[in-house]
Amino acid sequence: MRSRYSAFVVHDAGYLLRTWSAATRPPSVDFDADLRWTGLEVLATEGGTAFHEEGRVDFRARFRIRGRDGEQRENSRFVREAGLWVYVAEVPGA
Fold first, then answer.
1. Tally of domains in the chain
2. Of 6, 29, 55, 70, which cross-links 13 as Cys (Cβ 3.0–4.6 Å)?
3. 80 pLDDT higher than 80
4. Which pTM does this prediction carry?
């Protein structure tokens, strides 16, 4: 999760696409030039160890856009694909 957040900060679309599940990966990643990420707080994790094939990360990411502060709150699902952890999607209602 932290590495993907960092990739959003520096606009590394290649990394984001490589760490996105093939089942849910978009064709491209677009960045808003006016948006600046200002912090990440991991609130909780579930699974995701060397002994798991799936995990979840509940996080809050803060940003600033056009002079206003905001945040994105998400519970994300990750799975292993070819031995690597990849992002699948937000867990609805979590």
1. 1
2. 29
3. yes
4. 0.91
